[in-house]
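User: Hi! Is it possible to get a structure for several chains at once, not just one? Here's what I have:
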Amino acid sequence: MDLTISKQILSIALQRTAGIADRKSSMQILANVLIDATMASSVRLSATDLKLYASGVLPAQVIETGSVTVAAKMIHDVVKSLPEGEVRLRTDNDQLIVSSGRAKFKLLALPADDFPRLPETEGLSFFEVETGLLARMIDQTSFSISTDDTRPHLNGALFQGDGKKLRMVTTDGHRLNKVEHKVEEAGFYNFSMVIPQKGIMEFKRMIEEGSGHCKVAAQEGQIFVQREFDVEKVEGAEPLSASFLLVSKLIDSDFPNYDQVIPSSSERVVIAPRVLFLEALRRVSVVSSDRTLGVKFQLVEGSLEVMTNNPSVGEGAELVDVTYEGEKLVIGFNARYIIDALSTLTDDEIKLEVSGPLDPMVIKDMSGGFVGVVMPMRI
Amino acid sequence: MDRHPIEVLSPLVADQIAAGEVVERPSSVVKELVENALDAGATKIRLDIEAGGVRRIRVLDDGAGLAADEVKTAFLRHATSKLRRIEDLDDVSTFGFRGEALPSIAAVSRISVRTRTREDIEGTLLVLQGGRVVEQRSAGCPVGTEIEVADLFFNTPARLKFLKKESTEASHCAEALVRLAALRPDVGFTMSHAGRTVRNLSRVERVEERVMAMFGGEHLVRAQGEEAGVKVLAILGPPELSRAGAGSLYTFVNGRFVRDKTLLPAIAQAFGGTLQRGQYPVGLVAIDMPPGSFDVNVHPQKTEVRFAEPQAVFRAAHRVIGQMVASAVWSLGSLGLRVKEEATPLRNEPPSVPREPTFGFEEHRLVPPPPAVRPEPVLPAPSPRPRVTDPPPGEAPPQPLQLGLEPQPQTNHPTRLRDLRYIGSARSTFLLLEADDELVIIDQHAAHERVTYERLQRELTATGRLSSQRLLTAVNLDLGPAEADRIEELSEQLGRHGLEVSRTGPDRIGIHAVPAELALSSPARLLADMVLALEEGRKGSRSLDEDHLLATMACHGSIRAGKQLSPAEVTALLSQMESIDFAGHCPHGRPVLTRLPWRELERRVHRG
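Assistant: Yes, the chains can be modeled jointly so their relative placement is included. Here is the combined structure:
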């Protein structure tokens, strides 16, 4: 193998793939990145920890085809340190020679044949989603993925499509967050899968930058997300682009029936200014117990008072003007659960629906895409 | 079948039978003889035994001695100088009073006594065999009593057979001596076995010094206080020196060694979960209360006691020791972290008593102590001797142990854990901090567990129940019907601790809410562990299972070993550790931190 590639492109590609490599694995080769040059003008970089798989196809000038694997972190560090310009990657027996200008490194390599086989994308039917939309859906739900390993079916996000809508739902047993969006893009089909937390976070990393669309496909217990990036723009020339693919294994168990948990009606409805309410929660919870962040809401006509009383510190309270006409109610919550939800929303106002002090409270945005359910805390 | 006629036992056989109650083994003889010596006001007592005490037990004292006409009477059944009428029994404060001891011993051994009172010019020699006087005559001897018991159980071979090997019997004898010596620093005790000195407790001024000598210089902390007429003195070691069983914990009531079902749990529980189950601290706890408020005449071995109000004793011991534990952070001692000597304000005692080095049995002495008995003030021993943790020099002078102590100033040192420089963590388990003269190593899980435990306990004390986070859907567990029954029975107690459960099917339990502090732990695991903790605790008393349960819960809610902490998390943990009462141990009794002096490191690399 012998090729030259722009340092900038190689660096971006390594940044997006090398992180997946598993340095702690007992399989040494999983700590490596696979460099695979089979075409004349592109090279593929891949890394995997056997649960997640990331690869990028990058523009390059291939002089001699071939493939090799090399320690992901080391080549990333080496490439980052090089000056801007062309980098040459050349194999020499069991070494990869990285050279740029007068700098030259010989890195120990392992043969590409030992690298795990990568998932095949041939024949998959992808549908397109706007990256900004998908990123927002992840933002509004990923914070309530359960980390309780005795309930693996909750350790991920439910991702569903029903032909018209995309839906993402997470729950940690104390709260549930659901977001739905209409999708008009073509090629959209019915699917339902549970994506593990680590996969969700990697997807978000991949799509959160820039705008445009990404392609999504699901098959045989895996989700595929593919996205094109402009990696080099030179004035007057066509921008060079690279294609990145991220594949995650799915959680092989059923997500609980979330609809059951969302109350269909509530006795009390409150309309609250989102930012004022959020800030009041943040301020008052400063004095509540660090761990439980217990706060009480006192709801009376026209106002919601956020209160906390921490025997070892003191107390705090703040009144928020809200639209509410109904009986007085006092109910306790973990402030964190409500802060998490409110801070990912964008509407000026939010709707709170609640019945009694032991019943779940529903948080909705005014546009109707988001539904959060938070169970109360007995303080 | 042959019919045996009923006959009255001969006095000798009766004595031998009675002896079986009093004289079980050589150590019983030691106990009786040393008690007699103490009752006679000795200042020095020497005990020599041979062959585990079976061949020979000799007790030599410098006490009051016996007059020639009393010597023989002493060996008559129910002869005593300590009790005249049955009413006196309520006020008994000398050790022996049944008048059984000497005749019982005499019945099963060969005894020779040499004794002389200060008033007599000539002493008396009395020799008995199996309870019969063989010889009595005048003899020259020093003031005091020397009594030698030889060939114990020579005429009761059955009893002889039950004895353990010599070394075991010898250590029982030593134990009997130590129990009597613990509260009598004013009396010197020596003991030899087969000519070799095995115990040497010289006369000292304070009980602390005596206890230190007994435990060979471990770090002991003293506390004393009074509640509802129950005075408590405790001199105890830190939790990491605790032992399985109460063998090294000496408990006394009015100077008498006792083993009591009220006292031992009170002491263990006062350590607030820093002790593992079944473990007890080393040291001494002495209770002093009005003579009428307890009954020691329960068993001839007299290690049992019956309190008129056991709850009062429990509360007093629990409170005094609990406060001591809360404030005496043994393992943080050399860091200068909140080391203080616990002193609870006490009512002042009449001025005649305060120098009394023991807990109150002396006022009722019937044998008047000779002048020599009064303990001379002894200077505190020079320094390489073990010391009870005292306030640093200049803050408060060491106080002799007395009942009317002034409250001593609490000394809080400025050094705080978070002021030490955090260097980093090792194996994502140990936090390393640099102090002026040592490296402080903190077990992050144990430390966090301790903090969580304190928080849970504080919340429970303040509000009576732990706050709980409701679950979106009940977590259902399918169990056997018996297990479901058990959990259902415990549901109220679990609910008080934030875990709300109910029966959701014939053999199904649903969890509806979890303790808010532990909201991230698995509800199913939490339930299993909490039920286990409660079941274990059931055998013990109420507040013991409380501690155990909270400890179990704290473990769930704590940072695991192996989790890499950010510097901010470390700072938060350290400041939380300071905000709690007792940071020395995790609730399971493991130490939270250890220290490595730079000197030790330097020594290892041969520097300096």
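The interface with chain B takes residues 147-151, 171, 173-176, 256, 260-261, 289-292, 294, 311-312, 332, 334, 358, 360, 373, 375-379 of chain A (CB under 8 Å). The longest helix of chain A spans residues 7-17.

User: Great, thank you!
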